[in-house]
Amino acid sequence: MPVKNIALLGSTGSIGVNTMNVVAENPEQFRVVAISAGSNGTLLIEQAKRFKPEAVAIWDKNQEAAIKSALTGLNIKVFSGEDGLETVAGWPSARQVVSAIVGAAGLKPTLTAIRAGKDIALANKECLVMAGELFMEEIAKSGVTLIPVDSEHSAIFQALHNGQTGPIETPLTNERKNEIDHLTLTASGGPFHGWTKEQLQHVTKSQALAHPNWSMGRKISIDSATMMNKGLEVIEAYYLFGVPAGQIEVVVHPESIIHSMVSFYDGSVLAQLGEPDMRTPIAVAISWPKRVATSVDNLDLVKIGRLNFFPAPSAEDFPCLHLAFKALATGGSAPATLNAANEIAVAAFLDEKIEFLDIPKIIALTLDEMTVAKPNSIDEVMAVDNMARSKALELVLQIQGKNRLS
After folding, report:
1. What b/e sequence results for 325-353 when a residue is b if at least 16 CB atoms lie within 10 Å of its CB, and e otherwise?
2. Rounded Cα–Cα distance for residues 45 and 232 (Å)
């Protein structure tokens, strides 16, 4: 297998760091030729010195000069701002782009990569949540390969494509979809599995960030705690595989060993199992159809002993999951509104401006107050995103005011 050149968007985040680890373990298979980061210039410099890419980009323009100075003599081009991220996304020598920027900020650079003809390893679920139909149209138009990195979607992808050497089907053909009874996305349940709404009233930031199984970034950790992460993954699965929303279910599986399952009409159920470690789905996405070694521990089922499964929590206790299903059913701009409101609410919770249970309140109110329309372009998607953020920010301020008075 010849060396594959990779551009990595979001190299300093959790997925980015794990991608670098997989590359470091397989230097004869992969080379990182371009990387980008949001604001962690210190780690970006360390990565650039170790991996010696052809280019780096930092979103925060104020750090460009310092990064250039730190990388003097290494023949590494340095870029900054939104244009810099898009330059890395379309880097000429890259064959595949790993899209690992968190949130809506990842949409435009990922589209740049697609339009430049780069295969995509997608860890940014917001691309599909915000602009699923438009995004998949761009994939089809460019003829590039799209492989999911999220562990749940990687599991479904592997169940559907294992042993396949021909073209990857995203979304699936009608013939393949007709073989499927349903998809099951497994959820760990986060740190609050089994808690009631009453128990969640006084959740602290540190409690919400303490995921029992996965080591993740702050935003996705809160999404896991609210179950919004699973809701976003339902929307992502809908666009990735083209299976109707009514054929996508969520099951709580606290051990996070079975990462998701595909149930077929003949009664067969195919599941992908493994330790809860993101290096595995990353390795799958960048090496497919081959497999490469990682230092992830092999699964010991005897040691684990048993696997447990529970129904998805109620809308009363964990409304975020159900809000995501509602937004998907509404269609049009609703999923983009959902995502924008969630990002604002999560940021406010992390800044300790609102309470944990205020997160779904803000999302629900924003969905209720925004007009639903079908976006016909990425610019229209971003306009919806901006309006929803403004509305959600207003709601944050209102809740802060009420909290101060109470």
Report:
1. bbbbeeeebbbbbbbbbbbbbbbbbbeee
2. 32
Are 45 and 71 spatial neighbours (Cβ–Cβ below 8 Å)? yes
Q: Is pLDDT above 70 for 99?
A: yes
Nearest-angstrom CA–CA distance, 320 and 346: 12
**pLDDT (mean) for 276-284:** 95
Edge-first strand order for the sheet with 77-80 is 77-80, 55-58, 30-37, 4-9, 96-99, 119-122, 146-148
Domains annotated on the chain, with CATH: 4-124 (3.40.50.720), 174-405 (1.10.1740.10)
Where is 385: in which H helix or E strand?
Answer: helix 378-405
Res. 217 pLDDT band, cuts 50 70 90:
confident
Amino acid at residue number 198: E
- Average pLDDT (219-223) is 90
Record the pTM. 0.91
Residue 353 clears pLDDT 70, i.e. is over it? yes
Spatial contact of 96 and 120, defined as CB atoms under 8 Å apart = yes
Residues paired with 4 in a beta bridge: 30
Give the number of other Cβ atoms within 10 Å of residue 87's Cβ: 20
Name 25's Cβ contacts closer than 8 Å, sequence gap at least 6.
Answer: 292, 293, 294, 295
Q: Residues 6 or more apart from 219 whose CB is under 8 A from it?
A: 102, 103, 343, 346, 347, 350
**The token pair that represents 196 in the structure block:** 């009631």
Look at residue 21 in the predicted model and tell me its pLDDT: 97
